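re: ur question from yesterday

yeah so i grabbed the chain u mentioned. its 394 aa long if i counted rite. heres the sequnce exactly as i have it in my notes:
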Amino acid sequence: MDNIRAILEDAYQLAESKRDLRPGLSGNQIKWIETIMEKAESQKAVIAVLITSLVKKIETPAQDVRYHKKELPNGYSGRGFDTLHVTPFISEKFQRFAMKGGSGWLTRSLEQAHPFTLNFPGKIRNVSVKEAFLQILNDIEENRADPKKYLHATFIALIDLMERSRINLDLFEIANVDFRKAQQTETVTIEKIVNLLKRHFSIGYGVAGASRLPVLAVYSAYEMLMAIERFEGKTLLPLKSHTTADSKSGGIGDIEVLDKNGDFFEAVEIKHNIPISPGIIQVAYEKFLQTPVCRYYLLTTAEPNVEDIDSVGELVSEIHAQHGCEVIVNGILPSLKYYLRLLSNPKLFIERYSENLQLDFNQNTDIKEIHLRYWEDLLKYLLGDSSQASEPKQ
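ran it thru and got these structure tokens back, copy pasting raw so excuse formatting
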């Protein structure tokens, strides 16, 4: 194990000191690495499997790393190697690009018992990424290419991506600093905050991840609401990754509050641009049926908020009669307006939401740079800084 850690650390330190992809790699080899890294946010499993394969080849040169399962001829357990050594290292050094489930082999496209040869049938979503990944392993095994050079190049690319993220966050801090200076003014009202959030949620970004925004907004409000009497002695659980299924985590919603005994006390399920229907309520009920939760919110950004309002009302009443839980269906924005009225200083909510956006951006890949950039523009416009921003474009 110490040897494997040393391989990873040596490659990382070399990448830190020598940040040029070109030395020792051909044009095609560089292109393959760059193709994978261009899709790093959506291809974390491929990155984990690639690094695992490279490290295993360095550790055991005789191993054909394309044979990544023990049931394959002369194969090894790629998933076990990844779970024990590689994904923990990625989580430590490149947190945004780490697999939350613990291994790249948890994805169906990569876990099947077929070697990673050029005719590998796995349906990796991006065809170019699939080809680049298989070409790298083919290059190592058939052309005797040096896995150390590939690992070095992979780490250089990941370090660059992480640094770009940190730079973006530093730029984003400008808006937070300006806001803190303006907290004593009367320019920031609850109505303006809610309108700001509406615009942040609803703009067409052209990339995935916008559904995470209302979750972060409601969670930010809950962090501040934990100081009120209703939540005295209660615990707000940390947010899960947006891709973590409740069935796997044992959770019942996007946001969860526990009572002092560790039982579910309150939960929130959030939908983006999806009206709350009887089917959605039924799915939620099945998740919390066996728990003592006493209040369950189903909130959505969709307008209108509810589909088939009469059936929804009947089902909510039935659940209350059968279980005792009060199911509350509402829009995100009206709920946030109510939450902000409960806060002693609702202006501080903007700072908390900004911090959570930054944190989620740094730790996951749901929040993208464009989400941060637009929020920064919205804040500058809110504060009337005409020298820095005009009205943000939709």
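noticed a couple things. DSSP finds 15 helices and five strands in the chain. also The chain has a mean pLDDT of 88.
anyway ttyl
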